[in-house]
Specification:
The protein is α/β, with parallel strands linked by helices. The chain has eleven helices and twelve strands. Helices cover about 40% and strands about 20% of the residues. Pfam families: ApbA (PF02558), ApbA_C (PF08546).
Length: about 300
């Protein structure tokens, strides 16, 4: 079985490894011809697991290649989802399987509203990886991945995913899991970007801790109004535990801001604020963070 992966970042590269280990062939769809031309000539990827480098055989291609796509994993930034999939439409078939593996929310519903005839799943993961170079990925943790169908009469898993040797949890209702990942991202990522700090440093300053608590209470209100039970404990307790467990990490949002890239603030805190407005719930702490991150990033403030 052949899977295409749209998005050759850390997570997309990690899934290339997962899929090839399960016996599938993989094509990575890179952004453009320049990226392809600068890829190492030996092609493929290298993955570091527990200090040992291994080769990951995969093909490389650009979005305008002419090969058909029957199975597609989308691991792009959330804001690129619709335009990236639209660019691939000439290559997709009516029954093409699409899996969205991304941060944030909103893009899943937007894709459904396009009424494409593809079979669609959404997934969320705590797997962790980072790129040393564009073709070299370090696997930090396999994490846990939850996946569920977004379209009617769809199986719990895409074709061949039952063979993946990772902690994979198929579910009939993926929305609560997306909300839980969103909640943690709301509680940590914008604050690390605002304070320019590692995840663990959020707990070292009373002002940062207080702001996180305000953010968490607001997120819980919006989630509850949506019929979502986040965690057995409070979001603040869970978010603090996650921040401590990843204390040395720089969040993806902070890295985007530092490198002058567009962040996913609109699909994380922005989505939360839009839901709050729809439900007539005041979320001043999250609104403040949304505007602060927009101010830090010209690309975000222009959106």
């Amino acid at each position: 079985m052949h899977w295409h992966i749209l998005g050759a970042g850390a997570i997309g590269s990690l899934w290339a490894d997962f899929l090839t280990r399960a016996g599938h062939s993989v094509s990575l769809i890179v952004r453009n011809r320049t990226t392809l031309d600068h890829w190492p000539s030996d092609c493929g990827l290298e993955i570091n697991r527990s200090g040992h480098w291994q080769h990951v055989p995969c093909l490389l291609e650009t979005p305008d290649a002419d090969t058909p796509i029957e199975h597609l994993l989308v691991a792009t930034k959330a804001y690129d989802t619709l335009s990236a999939i639209e660019a691939l439409q000439p290559r997709l078939r009516a029954g093409t399987e699409l899996v969205l593996l991304q941060n944030g929310m909103g893009q899943q519903q937007q894709l459904l509203e396009r009424q494409y005839t593809h079979t669609l799943w959404a997934a969320t993961t705590t797997a962790a990886a980072w790129l040393e170079q564009r073709h070299q990925v370090h696997c930090v943790s396999l994490g846990d991945t939850h996946i569920g169908p977004l379209t009617a009469e769809t199986s719990l898993l895409p074709a061949g995913w039952e063979q993946l040797d990772i902690p994979l949890h198929p579910c009939t209702e993926i929305r609560p899991h997306l909300w839980r990942k969103l909640a943690i991202n709301c509680a940590i990522n914008p604050l690390t970007a605002l304070y320019d700090c590692r995840n663990g440093e959020l707990q070292e300053d009373p002002a940062r801790t207080e702001l996180m608590q305000h953010v968490c209470r607001e997120v819980e209100q919006v989630a509850t109004a949506n019929g979502i039970e986040l965690f057995p404990e409070s979001l603040a307790v869970r978010a603090n535990a996650v921040a401590q467990a990843t204390c040395d990490n720089f969040s993806s949002m902070l890295q985007d801001i530092r490198h002058g890239r567009r962040s996913e603030i609109e699909q994380i805190t922005g989505y939360l604020c839009r839901e709050a407005e729809r439900l007539n719930i005041d979320v001043p702490a999250n609104h403040s963070l949304l505007h602060a991150i927009r101010a830090l990033s010209p690309q975000d403030s222009a959106k």
